[in-house]
Amino acid sequence: MPVPAGSPEPLTSAQQELYDWLSDFIGEHRHSPSIRQMMEAMGLRSPAPIQSRLRHLQQKGWITWQEGQARTLQLLGDALSGGIPVLGAVAAGGLVETFDDVEERLDLEPVLGTRGLFALTVNGDSMVDAHIADGDVVLMEPVAEPSRLKEGTIVSALVPGSGTTLKHFHRDGRQVRLEAANPAYEPILVDADQVAIQGKLVAVWRQV
Fold first, then answer.
1. Are 198 and 154 contacting, i.e. CB atoms less than 8 angstroms apart?
2. Do residues 128 and 190 share a domain?
3. Three-state SS at 120
4. Residue 80: what pLDDT?
5. How far apart are CA 27 and CA 24, in angstroms?
6. How many domains does the chain have?
């Protein structure tokens, strides 16, 4: 069972049962389960107890979760709490230097500790020129004030009739232009009040 970094509050038996099941499920499937799947696993007929346990898990520092969006759930494990060692540089032709001494560590805690951080799996190739490929997982930070987004920021946006899309964000007067990083795709133009910006890109995770 992963243990969160820092000093999380202890869990009740019911909360621990759900956390352990979540750990096993995400470890096996590489994505978070639905509320219904959690209900079935816990033998519950109502989503209310699950939502209550999830709120407590988040408040106690064991998970991050956007309420109402089960797929945004992430465990706060300590596997990366010590950082990942940066072992030197690498060139296309071979190693630039050997890995004799580790003098630096890549600290991912500021990223993983971002409030409300959630993950999405990329479907399609519309962002390949931004080095985001089909099957990658993008870590997204919720956007509280879309009006303050910088031009060109990569965002996940909910567009009526099109679902959620990952694109570069631009403003065109009263419209928003969502631009792909692939010339094969036309920009999406939509009225600013018709698009919901869900998050902005923090990092890309690629399983190899």
1. no
2. yes
3. strand
4. 46
5. 5
6. 3
Where in the sequence is the domain holding 177, given as residue range(s)? 118-205
Indicate whether 87 and 126 sit together in one domain.
no
More confident site: 156 or 73? 156
Matching residue, tokens 């969160």:
4
Give the model's pLDDT for residue 100. Answer: 54
**How does pLDDT run across 179-194, given as a tens digit for each residue?**
999 999 999 998 988 8
CA–CA separation, 176 and 172 (whole Å) = 6
Active site residues: 126, 167
Q: Give 137's strand partners.
A: 121, 205
Residue 4 located in a structural domain: no
Q: Are 175 and 196 in the same domain?
A: yes
Same domain, 93 and 53: no
* Three-class secondary structure of residue 63 per DSSP: strand
Q: Is there a single domain that holds both residue 96 and residue 63?
A: no
CB count within 10 Å of CB 32 equals 21
Written as six digits, the tokens of 16 are 């621990």
pTM listed for this prediction: 0.54
CA angle 37, 42, 45 (to 5 degrees): 75
Q: Are 182 and 126 in contact (CB under 8 A)?
A: yes
Q: Measured between alpha carbons, how far is 85 from 93 in angstroms, rounded to an integer? A: 22
Has residue 1 been placed in a domain? no
The Cα 7–Cα 57 span in angstroms is 13
pLDDT at 45 over 70: yes
